[in-house]
Amino acid sequence: MSHGKQFTPYTYTTGPMAGWKVVFVLEELGLTYESVYLVFDKLEHESPEYTKLNPNGRIPALVDHKNGDFVIWESDAILLYLVDKYDTEKRLTVTDEKERYSLIQWLFFQASGQGPYFGQAVWFMRLHSEQVPSAIERYRKEVLRVFSVLESVLSKQEWLVGGKPTIADFSFISWNHVAINFAVKDYADVQKDYPALFSWHQKLVSRDSVKRVFAIQESLNKH
């Protein structure tokens, strides 16, 4: 560790990549870090130096220098590590056993139900070598299906678990943000059709920690 900060997150500069949710939580908990931004065009995420940290060759990975340079990867596993070890006031987690399993349930849903499908929607809309309308339609519909799941819960309660914002809520921010503002922007009226989800998302992105991270992301994308 040369930068003197506790954590080194390995992430990527653009897009709603999973690395940003880790930085949201680091900021929210006031933990010190210095990010390493991998250059995907140079395949740095597949380099031996990085795959020593994350054999999956994807972002994010996190090194905790104050815990013997412990390395952990998979974004939602990182969130659990951070709150289990460093959220001493339990601000972003829960203490009740049943609520903890509910929190883990939402993290699993985000990792399996939101991230992959929202990512595919963006891929086929922006990055695929040819337009495949049926694929775009499929993944946009899946975005709305996930929105419906969240709406069904958030229409009855303010937050996903514990009556407060937790890492369960934070885990959804990045992909929801790109879906609302890009993937389904001209496909659905999210504010009208999913009002509880829209309100929840606005409360999350209005937090100072999230605004700071969005400012970092915007500054990186100007270069």
TrEMBL record:
Cellular component GO terms held in the UniProt record: cytoplasm; nucleus
SUPFAM superfamilies tied to this protein: GST C-terminal domain-like (SSF47616), Thioredoxin-like (SSF52833)
Lineage: Eukaryota, Fungi, Dikarya, Basidiomycota, Agaricomycotina
Domain GST C-terminal residues, every copy: 96-223
Protein family (similarity comment): Belongs to the GST superfamily.
PROSITE patterns named among the record's database cross-references: GST_CTER, GST_NTER
Pfam families: GST_C, GST_N
Domain GST N-terminal: residue ranges: 6-90
Top enzyme category: transferase
GO molecular function, one term: glutathione transferase activity
EC number(s) recorded for this UniProt protein: 2.5.1.18
InterPro entries from the UniProt entry: Glutathione-S-Trfase_C-like, Glutathione-S-Trfase_C_sf, Glutathione_S-Trfase, Glutathione_S-Trfase_N, GST_C, Thioredoxin-like_sf
Catalytic reaction list: RX + glutathione = an S-substituted glutathione + a halide anion + H(+)
This protein's name: glutathione transferase
Keywords tagged on the record: Transferase
Reported function: Involved in the oxidative stress response and detoxification.
